[in-house]
Amino acid sequence: MIVAFSVTPLGVGEDVGEYVADAVRVVRESGLPHRTDAMFTSVEGEWDEVMDVVRRAVAAVEARAPRVSLVLKADIRPGVTDGLTSKVDTVERYLAE
After folding, report:
1. Which CATH code is given to the segment(s) 2-96?
2. Which parts of the sequence belong to the Thiamine-binding protein domain (predicted)?
3. Would the CA dihedral through 23, 27, 28, 29 be positive or negative?
């Protein structure tokens, strides 16, 4: 499964990069395949391990912010691995035609 999620601290002002870095650090330390862009962090793995990473990422931000917003989107497709790369590769292949 691939989960794309965004954790946003609320009540801490406009500059939230430091708080978001706490969440991304949890993802990177998890050892799961992941990718971070300007809007979301995507992480790939089994249900329990991915949801545990999301839970811990939220907790990392929650430890320093009075309120946290979580946006989550999941692609649940049993048996598929390396989806973070293969899905993008498929689109790139069509664009190259």
Report:
1. 3.30.70.930
2. 3-92
3. positive
pLDDT of residue 74: 97
3 state DSSP class of 39: coil
**Is the pLDDT assigned to residue 53 strictly greater than 90?**
yes
The predicted model scores a pTM of: 0.90
Sign of the Cα pseudo-torsion (48, 5, 38, 42, in order):
positive
| Contact assessment for residue 28 and residue 12, using Cβ atoms and an 8 Å cutoff | no
Query: What distance in Å separates the CA atoms of residue 9 and residue 2, rounded to the nearest whole number?
Result: 23
What distance in Å separates the CA atoms of residue 76 and residue 3, rounded to the nearest whole number?
8
Contact 9, 19 (CB under 8 A): yes
Evaluate the CA torsion angle 11, 4, 37, 22 in order and state its sign: positive
Q: Which two tokens mark 4?
A: 């794309």
Q: What is the pLDDT of residue 81?
A: 84
